[in-house]
Amino acid sequence: MIQTYNRKQLEQLKEEINQHNYRYYVLDDPSVPDAEYDRLMRQLQAIETEHPEWLTPDSPSQRIGANPLSAFSEIVHQIPMLSLDNAFSDEELLDFERRIKERLKSDAEIEYACEPKLDGIAVSLLYRDGLFVQGATRGDGYRGEDISQNLRTIPSIPLKLIGEGWPRILEVRGEVYMPKKGFEEFNRRALAADEKPFVNPRNAAAGSLRQLDPKITAKRPLEMCCYSAGLVEDGELPDRHTQVLQQLHQWGFRVNDQMSVVRGIDACINYYRQLGNKRDQLHYEIDGIVFKVNSLPLQQALGFVSRAPRWAIAYKFPAQEEMTRLLDVEFQVGRTGAITPVARLQPVFVGGVTVSNATLHNMDEIERLDVRVGDTVIVRRAGDVIPQVVSVVLAQRPDDAEVISFPSRCPVCDSEILRNIGEAVARCTGGLYCSAQRKQAIKHFASRKAMDIEGLGDKLVDALVDEGLVETVADIFNLRSEQLSKLERMGDKSADNLLKALEKSKKTSLNRFIYALGIREVGEATALNLANHFGSLEKVQTASEESLLSVPDIGPIVAKHINTFFQQPHNLDIIAQLRTAGVHWPENEPRPVAELPLQGKTFVLTGTLERMTRDQAKAELQALGAKVSGSVSAKTDYLVAGTNAGSKLSKAKSLELEIIDEEEFIRCLSEWRA
Ligand code: IVH
To answer: Which protein residue has the closest C-alpha to ligand 1 atom 22?
Structure first.
């Protein structure tokens, strides 16, 4: 049946789509399934095809991308888009407040708005009678480029304001950025298609907005978050900055979810520290915190100096990317023989620490970067992630820069290096003959989540292997006090402590022991599944590949690794030696996994737990069969929220998930265990 529509129904449909759009892209709180949204959109497109005379620029169908331009035209900002002064230390922030108080000739406590400084591209959006009419880049602050066509494609930018009461002319300013996930996904696809990836999300956002063909921009995962109003005519806004943003939010704009109002500069410093700790968990990149005097009349009174306001400052985080020189490349051998090229760098302060080594991952990466010894490179260190070389500054390449060649023999044991077809990783074939692999295997065995041998750190393992005191993990339990105390920097007391720690570690659990063996691709979770499923080491050892496949999360590759491991006589020999030395664990009745009380349930842990660490909570949950995930989604069954829980908690609330606090969690744990 062909349905006919009138103009009013079309407007209602547009309104409905706008609402869904707002819920999805601005509030992160979808109101309908994707399929329903798509259906409404197709309906809209059908009506507009039928009635082209009804098509308006604010229609949600107009985000898909207009025809390409040959160049961007210039626009003049009626109110200049200025920049911000930076602070790099607490002292500079204190100076900022001192200057404000001097200027205001008042010592009264000042209220500040605190906002993350988004690392993207500043834009200006102009609305006339509630309709988006023009969007521009900041340019030099006075003149920018008209990128309206590209901005239209960004779903979090309203084409038509929601609600009512907006000024006839309203300019909204903010930042367009590419969220971290979208950036990674985009780069993954670019690499797969042999295209050049972007160096960082900021460049990705800039590159996407600079496209003359808006259809390209439309495919990029961009978001826009607003941070102020600009030109306002025929209408009024509240007189506090944060209230202005709340108002803009109600009219359809995204505002930052971490925004906070505080009193006094000490509270600003506090906010800076707290957000610094959370920086890696945010879904977008930030490079500092912006503090703004919240009262607009006070902002007016303070005014501007040269190109920046006196009432705001950006307190920058330590840069996560810096330039330095690549001095050399060394090839390290991992536990499974994987050869990793490591860049030796001219030490550089980046991401808050001095970095002198960075990973180059593998040979493909070296070729992709086209990096050579002697090059100036950009090094990135974000949070606790291993520092990486992200790109080469080709313009600074010296004439004698040296091409890097991958070794054909292991730099430690001289065994042949092989690379399986289809794998990026090349491996030393020396196995336990290779002292590098032996050292790594012992370090893994002793590590906290494995046998947890306190005091047996990396340096000591290196020394024990180099001195010939230890060859395999079984040998560490035969160490004697007089052998240990002869080692450099090891007195009688530390030798004694180590022996005690070794003794203590002998009492372990089956899952820890399996994990400690260091079987390829068998991490903590898989080890636990194996222990739960089979209940005894003998059964795991003798399991066929087929029966291994019935263990959750084990596929053919992992099954093969496990099977191969237990077929090697020297591995069985080491296990026997360990047991003779006294390593033991309680034998469980095998618990078919489906019987575990939390089988199939997904948990997310957030905030600070007071009575246990997150690792402990995670291990407890996994032992009960639950999956522990890092992010909240509709698939989450429970959110365990400790103190100071942030965005995960808000998301869980908006999805109406089951939320439990620590006390309740502990109570439930004992019930589930029973
Ligand atoms: S306010 C007059 N707030 O930082 C003050 N800027 O260095 C105008 N930025 O060009 C800027 N997040 O692109 C402001 N929450 C925020 C921001 C922010 C990022 C960028 C913006 C601006 C640059 C200034």
So the answer is: 83
Residue 104 sits in a domain of what CATH number? 3.30.470.30
432: tokens are: 């336990």
Instruction: Look up the CATH number of the domain holding residue 442.
Output: 1.10.150.20
Q: How far is CA 203 from CA 127, 199, 260, in A?
A: 27, 7, 28
Q: Which two tokens stand for residue 111?
A: 């209220």
pTM for the full predicted model: 0.65
Distance separating alpha carbons of residues 553 and 434, to the nearest angstrom: 31
Query: Could you tell me if 176 and 123 are in contact, meaning their C-beta atoms sit under 8 angstroms apart?
Result: yes
Would you tell me how many other CB atoms lie within 10 Å of the CB of residue 466? Answer: 12
- Summarize pLDDT for 547-598 with one digit per residue, the tens: 999 898 899 999 999 999 999 888 999 999 999 999 999 876 666 666 788 9
Q: Which of 117, 316, 439, 443 is catalytic?
A: 117
Q: Are residues 604 and 572 in the same domain?
A: no
Percent over 70 (pLDDT), the chain:
99
Is 424 a domain residue? Answer: no
Task: Check whether residue 335 and residue 280 sit in a common domain.
Answer: no
Of the pLDDT bands very low, low, confident and very high (cuts 50, 70, 90), residue 362 is very high
Whether residue 314 has its Cβ less than 6 Å from ligand 1: yes
Q: How far is the CA of 115 from the centre of ligand 1 (A)?
A: 10
In a domain, 96, yes or no: yes
Same domain, 523 and 538: yes
Domain boundary, last residue among 16, 34, 62 = 62
Give, using CA atoms, the residue closest to atom 14 of ligand 1: 227
Q: Which domain holds residue 13?
A: 7-62
Query: Which residue owns the Cα nearest ligand 1 atom 1?
Result: 227
Q: For residue 652, which of 663, 630, 636, 668 has the smallest C-alpha distance?
A: 636
- Tell me, yes or no, whether 215 and 83 share the same domain: yes
**Strand locations in 30-100 (E):** 74-76, 86-87
What's the residue count for the chain? Answer: 674
Give the single-character DSSP code of 105. Answer: T
Residues 6+ apart with CB under 8 A from 476: 442, 445, 446, 453, 456, 464, 470, 502
Task: Give the number of the atom of ligand 1 that is nearest the alpha carbon of residue 115.
Answer: 15
Q: Is residue 422 part of a domain?
A: no
- The answer, yes or no, to whether residue 124 has pLDDT greater than 80, is yes
Return the structure tokens found at 555.
């596929």
Q: What is the CATH number of the domain that holds 49?
A: 1.10.287.610
Tell me the average pLDDT across 155-184: 96
463 with 567, same domain: the answer is: yes
Pocket test for ligand 1, best of 79, 81, 84, 225 (most atoms within 8 A of CB): 84
Q: Is 117 one of the annotated active-site residues of the chain?
A: yes
Domain count, the chain: 5
Question: Tens digits of per-residue pLDDT, 195-220?
Answer: 888 888 999 999 999 999 999 999 99
How far apart are the C-alpha atoms of 54 and 56, rounded to whole Å? 6
pLDDT tens digit string along 339-355?
999 999 999 999 888 99
Residue 186 above 90 pLDDT?
Answer: yes
Q: Is ligand 1 within 6 A of the CB of residue 117? A: yes
CATH number of the domain residue 638 falls in: 3.40.50.10190
- Residues 162, 248: one domain? yes
Domain containing 378 — which CATH number?
Answer: 2.40.50.140
Give pLDDT tens digits for 516-525: 999 999 999 8
Last residue of a domain, one of 554, 580, 606: 580
Over residues 443-452, mean pLDDT: 95
**Residues 265 and 188 placed together within one structural domain of the fold:** yes
Choose the residue to mutate in 176, 287, 290, 315 for probing ligand 1, maximizing ligand atoms within 8 Å of C-beta. Answer: 290
**Per-residue pLDDT tens over the stretch 51-85:** 999 988 889 988 877 788 889 999 999 999 989 99
d(CA 267, CA 286): 20
> Is 591 domain-assigned?
no
Both 166 and 227 in one domain: the answer is yes
pLDDT of residue 1: 46
